[in-house]
Design goal:
- The structure holds two protein chains of two kinds.
- Chain A contains no helices and eleven strands.
- Chain A is mainly β.
- Chain A has strands at residues 5-7, 10-13, 19-24, 31-37, 44-50, 53-57, 64-68, 73-78, 87-94, 103-104, 108-112.
- Chain B is mainly β.
- In chain B, 0% of the residues lie in helices and 55% in strands.
- Classes of the chains: A mainly beta, B mainly beta.
- Chain A binds chain B through residues 2, 4, 31, 33, 35, 37, 39-45, 48, 55-56, 58-59, 88, 90, 92, 94, 96, 98-107, 109, and chain B through 1-2, 4, 30-31, 33, 35, 40-45, 48, 50, 88, 90, 92, 96-105.
């Protein structure tokens, strides 16, 4: 148990729809990152939030957006879903120090049909 | 894009044997971390080695880092069936951000 909880566990959406994935971080962890992991691949960094501000972004289009809340929860929103968005989405939280390993949640498996 | 490349992509061994996985990366790093993932679920942090360290141990795990060759290895000694999982290396860059760049992973199967 890492203390990082993601919901829902599984989700099926139709192409063109919008989706919101949620993450509850460990208390005190002011940094949260989101990763996308396609089948058979390693996780790819989407973006990171620090104290409710975006603090780094990977090579993902603007239809991927996020929010971080003062209560250590966060959201990943994806608009205009595409079939290639089907993946495991992982949330990771940490204390924010360089080299502090993040704690990952169990992920949300998103299937776009 | 992937930074690290794990080698081999898949490894099958017998219980009790040692398993060695390698990782190569492309850019300068602040640290390198190894993670384990069971059946496509969450990642479990195993060990972190900083760029000024050459070797680190944790239980049955031994990690080496060669920054001149931009490579790392993870050794699991006396493997158990429960070690069956995918193993990923991830690098942290010099910017101070916590963005991790993962490789594609090595799928380890330990046969009882």
């Amino acid at each position: 148990e890492t203390g990082v909880t993601q919901s829902p566990t599984h989700l099926i959406k139709t192409r063109g729809q919008q989706v919101t994935l949620r993450c509850s971080s460990q208390s005190g962890h002011n940094t949260v990152s989101w990763y996308q992991q396609a089948l058979g691949q390693g996780p790819q960094f989407i973006f990171q939030y620090y104290r409710e501000e975006e603090n780094g972004r990977g090579n993902f289009p603007p239809r991927f957006s996020g929010l971080q809340f003062p209560n250590y929860s966060s959201e990943l929103n994806v608009n205009a879903l595409e079939l290639d968005d089907s993946a495991l989405y992982l949330c990771a939280s940490s204390l924010g120090g360089v080299g502090d390993p993040p704690f990952f949640g169990q992920g949300t498996r998103l299937t776009v049909v | 894009s992937q930074q690290g490349e794990e080698d081999p992509q898949a490894l099958s061994i017998q219980e009790g044997e040692n398993a060695t996985m390698n990782c190569s990366y492309k850019t300068s790093i602040n640290n390198l971390q190894w993670y384990r993932q069971n059946s496509g679920r969450g990642l479990v942090h195993l060990i972190l080695i900083r760029s000024n360290e050459r070797e680190k141990h944790s239980g049955r795990l031994r990690v080496t880092l060669d920054t001149s060759k931009k490579s790392s290895s993870l050794l699991i000694t006396a493997s158990r069936a429960a070690d069956t999982a995918s193993y990923f290396c991830a690098t942290g860059d010099l910017s101070g951000s916590e963005k991790l760049v993962f490789g594609k992973g090595t799928k380890l199967t330990v046969n009882p």
